[in-house]
Amino acid sequence: MRLILEIAFTHIVGRGRQTLVAILGVAVGVGFSIAMAALMQGGQDDFIEQLVNTMPHVQITDERRTPPRQPAEDVFETVAISGLRPREDRRGIINPTAALTWLRGWVPGRVAESLKAQGVIRYSGRDVGASIIGVDPDAERGVSPIVGDFVQGSFDRLTAGGNNILIGDTMASRLGAGLGDTITAVSSTGLSRNFKIAGLFHTGTTARDEGEAYVLLKNAQILSERANAVNDIRIKLADPNAAPGVAKRAEAELGYKAEAWQEANESILEALVIRNVIMYTVVAAIMLVAGFGIFNIISTITHEKARDIAIMKSLGFAEGDMRRLFLIEGVAIGAAGSFIGWLLGFTLVYALAQVRFELATTGQEMTRLPIAWSFLHYLLAAGFALASAAVAGYLPARKAAKLNPVDIIRGAT
Which of 264, 127, 110, 139 is nearest to 214 (CA)? Predict the structure, then answer.
């Protein structure tokens, strides 16, 4: 085996320029594959983290997945009911106190209730449609990231009580209002109430910054004329991956629709899976192209060393030895290229991690490209490279092993 390794080394060094080109081809493929995987995986991880952090892991609303059974169905053998107008029910989640107590008894996380009502925010002759959300400040801190998104004032001012309101900075700009101004909130029932702006938040999501306003839960219940009503329960779990199980149990017990964050973003998560398939397909294609360079080198060596092969076989080297010889040469080129590619990939990933750019939406905030540092990317890239190198080396090796030494020496080949 040692002799075969020495011969393989001699063959590779004997065609130094071509070997170097093949190694660099593999290295470039491996390096850019690592950089692309790090960038795409980092973007995906950052996006999922934003989803997990900005929305509840489980959300229970006063909706139901299926319509309630109608009394007529219990009396008549009905096939279908048409023209049914549901009775307006503004009670929200029935008996919310018992539901919250039950949830807090077993849910491995934090639970917060709220009442969301549609209305209009009015100031100085300007109107803006908004979702007026009544919350319990103490419970809200455990489930909502908006607590840390204030540019003026703070979420704590809502705890002080009174008619305080928290709105987005974009809504404040559209209204022409500022911190400390008094605005009027008008509910869908026509009831209005004055509130003092106690804080301005900026989440970076336009729909929230210009369309949401937070008040105390009791104030929202008074404004919407729904005493003690709650129509939204949000849950933040210690383990976000446990959300589907928690949602299933909550919906089975309470009867209301409980949606896990995975279900709410199912189409997005499916798109990410497809993107990963595309990414690794491109990586495999890059390695395949690099493999053609290795195939070309090994084929050339096989052709040029035909007389040497004949002599070796006449000296007693078996066909298996010939296959191993040229297969080792291909894998050696792939391994050398993979090692250099690791260095190139690390350099590219480090360079991408240093890139800073200014967000156009804010004009001030500086951020970096989301990069995922994972040794798995290096292993996958090297694995693709070695696999393509092994295939590229095996094909000429099989041909070389079948050569007849007598024909070669006679000059038939």
Answer: 139
Q: What is the pLDDT of residues 275-309, one digit of tens each?
A: 888 877 877 777 777 667 667 766 776 666 666 66
Q: What contacts 122, CB < 8 A, 6 or more positions away?
A: 128, 183, 184, 185, 186, 192
Structure tokens at 72: 């007529």
Residue 162 region, left (φ>0) first, then alpha (ψ -120 to 50), else beta? Answer: left
CA–CA distance, 349 with 355 (Å, rounded to integer)? 10
At 114, give phi and psi (nearest 5°). Answer: -160, 165
H helix intervals, 182-318:
206-209, 217-223, 243-254, 261-264, 266-304, 306-314
The dihedral through the CA atoms of 73, 76, 77, 78 has a sign that is negative
Which of 158, 162, 139 minimizes the C-alpha distance to 236?
A: 139
Q: Which residue has the tokens 């190139």?
A: 344
CA distance 128 to 377: 49
Taking only the tens place, the pLDDT of each residue in 16-65 is 777 787 788 888 888 888 888 888 888 888 888 887 888 899 999 988 87
What is the pTM assigned to this prediction? 0.72
- The contacts of residue 225 (CB under 8 Å, 6+ apart) are 187, 189, 191
Write down the residue that tokens 């002080």 correspond to. 160
Measured in degrees and rounded to the nearest 5, phi and psi for residue 7 equal: -65, -45
Q: Left if phi > 0, otherwise alpha if psi is -120 to 50, otherwise beta: which for 100?
A: alpha
